[in-house]
Amino acid sequence: MSRIKHTKTELKAQRDALRRFERYLPTLQLKKQQLQLEVRNLEAQLEKKRAEERLFAEALAPWIRLFAEQVGLDKLLRVKEIRTSEGNIAGVTIPVLEGIDFDRSVPDLFRSPSWVDEGLDAMEAAIRFAAEIRILEEELRALGEELRTTTQRVNLFEKVKIPESAENIRVIRIYLGDEQTADVVRGKIAKGRSVEKVRSA
Questions:
Q1: What predicted TM-score, i.e. pTM, was given to this entire model?
Q2: Is residue 199 part of a domain?
Q3: Residue 110 belongs to what domain range?
Q4: Along the 201 residues of the chain, how does pLDDT read in single tens digits?
Q5: Whole-angstrom Cα distance, residue 149 to residue 153?
Q6: Total number of domains in the chain
Q7: Closest CA to 81 of 100, 67, 68, 95
């Protein structure tokens, strides 16, 4: 515990601090609850998206060997831009996927195998899944960090600052009460001595 002065000024400062902590704590607790809810929702979204990606990969499995053929798919499809914006959840800035723009060339129908169009669609879908999962992971990481920080602040207020201020107030009040009692006793002693001096004179 930090060293405190046993004065009325310090007592007022400690009371003001306690009021501030008690006023701010409910806001922090509410933010913590919002973040916990958002983290749970994001975890569910992420798990759902990963499950969709697994099902998609399983559906591709029977004809994935076709991708080993050298047909130049990488020249027919490339990511032009992954468009993102910023969102806000409980005061936390998070990335939001707006869309993905592809630069897709039309394959030569005479030289390309018949499955190339479907292959390009599958590549686009795989890229979309990867981007969506990456953005959700970034959102979850940002919210997780903020949740940890907010939880630490809630704990600091609940377990340290509020009890510490309350204890400081108690100690100062006891000290000031003792001082006041001592002053009264000293006053009575001084009065008694002055009365005795008057009588003996």
A1: 0.75
A2: no
A3: 8-188
A4: 457 888 889 989 999 999 999 999 999 999 999 999 999 999 999 999 999 999 999 988 877 776 666 666 677 888 999 999 999 988 899 999 999 999 888 777 777 777 778 888 888 999 999 999 999 999 999 999 999 999 999 999 999 999 999 999 999 998 888 888 877 777 777 777 776 776 666
A5: 6
A6: 1
A7: 100
